[in-house]
Amino acid sequence: MQLNYIANASTPSSSGRTIPVIDPSDGQVFDEIQRSNAQDIDDAVHAARQCFDAVWSKVSAAERGRLLMKLSAKVAEHADELAAIEQRDCGKPTKQAKADALALVRYFEYYAGACDKLHGETIPYQDGYSVLTWREPHGVTGHIIPWNYPMQIFGRSVGGALAAGNVSVVKPAEDACLSLIRVAQLAAEVGFPAGAINIVTGYGHEVGDALARHPGIDHISFTGSPGVGTIIQQVAAERHCPVTLELGGKSPQIIFADADLDAAIPMVINAIVQNAGQTCSAGSRVLIDELIYEPLLERLGKAFEKLRVGPAILDLDVGPLIRQSQQQRVWDFLSDAQVAGIPMVAQGQIVDEAPETGFYQAPTLLRDVPVTHRLAQDEVFGPVLSAMSFRDEDHAVELANATRFGLVAGVWTRDGARQFRMAKRVRSGQVFINNYGAGGGVELPFGGVKSSGYGREKGFEALLGFTTLKTVAIRHG
Ligand code: NAD
């Protein structure tokens, strides 16, 4: 049984209740986590506050950096163990689980190096004054984390917050807590003081809500669905608590007739099947120049048919979805497509070794999806790619911007001037030209516009969000 991790101690919830942990590859229960409540959040916030006041706020930036670097090394030592934990908990194919553990190593390394490079400025002002700004931590930051990339999102969110001098209370998703409990234990082993990183597990509407409402939380970093993002924003607004929202997307891959299709095709496919399509930045719409619509669909279809889906441990192209309700969600989208007469181009194959009790979905390519249909508007959060054609550049921009989201976009063209025009005209937090994701570099600021959220995580930019600016004006004559 897994316990909360509060003030560097494994702690049962005061509720005395637990939640079963299910392996998505076979649908079987293999562990349990604490079903925590508001009291547990209160305990964690109290521990965090004590740590901040008595210890962490007195630790120098350089020393914070050294600790984060030690944690990075410790996570690297335990990367295989952490990957195996995440694999079973989330159903990730081996390559993906390992990549996630190594991304966590890199986040801690990056933010370790950034700690002592974050500083304020001096401002020229009237004669007789000196004015300076200080970048101060918020204090106790709350982190609500989704189940799709627990380690990566912990790294970018908690890593940045600690680097900027905050202490943290973390609420992982009820479907994916195990790796983060282990990371918090490793942090204690390398010397993070009691209360710097606290993990409290449980349901969103119970413990997540308690965290968002707690008056001792000075900043909330929320990564999850747009619907819950709205709730968090409303709850935080009551006490004017600053919030960073990393929400979903319906990201387009825009392919012009002059594109290098040999380069584009594998990336278009990877961007929708990675993590079984359960990626906020999944390229879930492919917008294709009408001049190459038919031949490109044929090539994409052939590639889809070769994709194999099965248990995480087999390390195939696609693993299971996280849970049964997610599988049902994808089925609902696909049955809507059928009712609307949206043609299916191709599907991948679920292998025979996949247990019937696992949550599998074959990758599916749909064509001629009307721009107003929910398959072109809403996140499926599964391996379903919606294709549509465009007439010219203006039409491509219109389709790309025709959703409430704006997280990531990919543009494929050899025309240099068009590359810049498209990057300017597409409304999203990131635009990739002739690639998609640029390998996910931790240095690259990430976040959305419109309903994809606001604020940025990753990169140095994130540190600005994890601090508040104090202006100090000294009148010395
Ligand atoms: P979710 O919104 O259901 O849950 C996210 C987290 O919020 C979980 O920890 C959950 O327990 C908690 N939560 C749920 N209800 C809550 C409440 N009322 N108060 C406080 N906390 C609550 O999302 P999910 O299903 O876990 O993740 C999928 C969603 O996350 C997708 O929409 C995806 O696009 C988005 N996402 C976005 C990013 C990004 O960086 N933009 C990254 C990963 C996932």
Report on this model:
With 477 residues, the protein is α/β, with parallel strands linked by helices. It folds into two domains: 4-247 and 454-475, 3-Layer(aba) Sandwich (Aldehyde Dehydrogenase, Chain A, domain 1), CATH 3.40.605; 252-441, 3-Layer(aba) Sandwich (Aldehyde Dehydrogenase, Chain A, domain 2), CATH 3.40.309. It is 39% helix and 21% strand. The protein has helices at residues 38-54, 61-77, 79-90, 94-114, 150-163, 178-190, 204-213, 226-237, 261-273, 293-306, 324-339, 374-377, 393-400, 416-425, 461-465, and strands at residues 4-6, 9-11, 18-23, 28-34, 122-123, 129-137, 140-144, 167-171, 197-199, 219-223, 243-246, 252-255, 285-289, 308-309, 344-347, 349-350, 364-366, 384-390, 408-412, 430-433, 453-454, 467-475. The chain has a seven-stranded mixed beta sheet, with helices on both faces. Helix 9 (261-273) crosses helix 10 (293-306). It starts with a strand and ends with a strand. Nicotinamide-adenine-dinucleotide is lined by residues 144-148, 171, 173-174, 204-205, 208-209, 212, 223-225, 228, 231-232, 246-248, 280, 379, 381, 407, 453.
Molecules bound to protein? nicotinamide-adenine-dinucleotide
User: Can you tell me the CATH superfamily of the largest domain?
Assistant: Aldehyde Dehydrogenase, Chain A, domain 1
**Strand order of the biggest β-sheet:** 15-17-18-13-12-19-20
Question: What's the CATH architecture of the largest domain?
Answer: 3-Layer(aba) Sandwich
> How many DSSP H or I helices?
15
Q: Distance N terminus to C terminus?
A: 65 Å
